[in-house]
Design goal:
The protein is 79% helix and 0% strand. It contains 5 helices and no strands. It has helices at residues 7-24, 28-41, 45-52, 55-75, 79-102.
Length: 108
C-alpha cells in the first residue's frame, strides 16, 4: 500500500530539498533565494495546505517543476543562466506565500 503525501508533507519535503540544493549549488544568488524561500515556506506548511484547498495537487506540481528546474540549473555554467531558470519558479512560490500570509480565514 503506497503512502500518499499531503500538501503539508510536500511543503516540508520541498523546504528540505531547497536546503539540500542550496548546499550543493555553485551560485550564491540561487543559494540565498532557496534558503530564503525555505525559511518563508516552512512555518506556513499547515496553512499552505489548508488555505489553498487543493494544496496537495499544487505542491505535487511545484515539486515536479522544481525537480525539472534543478537539473537545468545544475547544467548551467553561469549564474545569469541559472537565475533565468529559477525566477519563474520563485515568482510562483512568492505568490503562494503572499496569498497565505494575507488571506483571512472565514468561519461559517
Amino acid at each position: 500500500m503506497s503512502e500518499e503525501k499531503t500538501g503539508t508533507q510536500l511543503v516540508r519535503d520541498m523546504c528540505q530539498t531547497f536546503r539540500d540544493v542550496a548546499e550543493t549549488t555553485q551560485f550564491d544568488a540561487v543559494k540565498e533565494k532557496l534558503i530564503s524561500l525555505s525559511d518563508d515556506l516552512e512555518p506556513l506548511a499547515k496553512k499552505l495546505y489548508f488555505k489553498t484547498q487543493k494544496g496537495t495537487e499544487d505542491m505535487e506540481a511545484l515539486t515536479k517543476e522544481f525537480e525539472d528546474m534543478q537539473s537545468k540549473v545544475a547544467a548551467c555554467q553561469e549564474a545569469g543562466a541559472a537565475q533565468a531558470f529559477c525566477v519563474p519558479f520563485y515568482d510562483k512560490l512568492e505568490k503562494i506565500i503572499k496569498h497565505v500570509k494575507t488571506m483571512k480565514v472565514r468561519m461559517t
